User: Fold mannan endo-1,4-beta-mannosidase from Heracleum sosnowskyi.
Amino acid sequence: MVAGNNLFYPIVGFASCLAFLYMSFGGMWPDFRDHSEQSVSFVERNGSHFMLDGRVFYVNGWNSYWLMDHAVNEYSKYRIKAMFQAGAKMGLTVCRTWAFNDGDYNALQISPGQFDEKVFRALDHVIAEAKQQGVRLLLALVNNLQAFGGKTQYVKWAWEEGLGLTSSNDSFFYDPSIRRYFKHYLKTVLTRKNSITGIEYRDDPTIFGWELINEPRCVSDASGNTLQDWIQEMSTFLKAIDKKHLLTVGLEGFYGPKSPKRLTENPEWWASDLGTDFIRNSMLPTIDFASVHIYPDHWTHVQDLEYKLKFVSTWMQSHIEDGDKELMKPIMFTEFGLSSENKGFDPAQRDRFYKIVFDIIYNSAKNKGSGAGSFAWQFFVGGMEDYNDEFGIVPWQRPSTYKLITEQSCRLARIQGVVPWRTQYLKQLCSH
Assistant:
């Protein structure tokens, strides 16, 4: 066993040194192996929990609404891979993004029923890249706001074609012509065959689920009946086409005029007059999980930070209680953000805000509650300052924020057990 020229001991010493270096530092480097050929299961629901491969699945996620738009052009396309790789490196599991752009620049839907194939291929790329990096997608299907077209564009189309009942934006929810427009859009997207993977969207488990509409409001009918009818009709229509994916409404979480919580939990009096009702809208059997947003800066006139942070805690606990006791469904906080435009803003304040959100989700998960996950609004990669708003961040540019995010990924992973194709990477991330 002794090598010639007494080389045995130097060789053993060198090998021992290499082993020490690997064991000490090898786990610091992320595992960006291609997951596209590995088997991926659909996320399902069992009562108030998401399930994946027989285990409870909790989400540490983020918003990057801009992915499809930036995948259209070659000069910005690299950002999609960069964002998904960065998300995977932080242990994030689901990204929420737009699967719509109606009549705007880089529009997916140019006019009712007319689609730009180049933009559809951009969305194909987003989904395929997410799969490669081991990230799932929550895809929103239309905007209540005017950005990227939204319900305003649908109303404009109907009005221009002489079919619209009224020019009111809320006619999106009750005009028969506009309802037909939107159903055609839903069917086209759900049955789209990805030009890269060859998989129809409705059959692709990379898609975590669908969101009917971002932040719906129907102020012309404060009773909530108009919006409720629309949700029921569209969710039933979608589920008839796609029975495999989870579905949520896209609510902000406000309690309606008949809810006793409107007086105690809503941020201010106006929140019960928007035509939405968190409990009623989320109760429908075609809705698999409830969505809630958290924007204390935009929802209250009180400027005191401590007041806002206390509201965040109460707001979240109230909705998790609803999931536990009334809805019996998972609760997802699909947007949360603290504005950098607040007087005296300091990034440390945002860290405190993030920590409250993460701790409440973690404690709910630890106690097997319905708090199923959260999505920060919003993440970018470097060089995208022109696309930012008062809430967006490049998380790795601030170590304390980055640490909060990765620690949340690891805490949830320890509760649920890690997803098979991410086991190696999460072990590496969480061992530090």
Summary: The first helix runs from residue 8 to 25. The two ends are 38 Å apart (CA to CA). The chain has a mean pLDDT of 90.
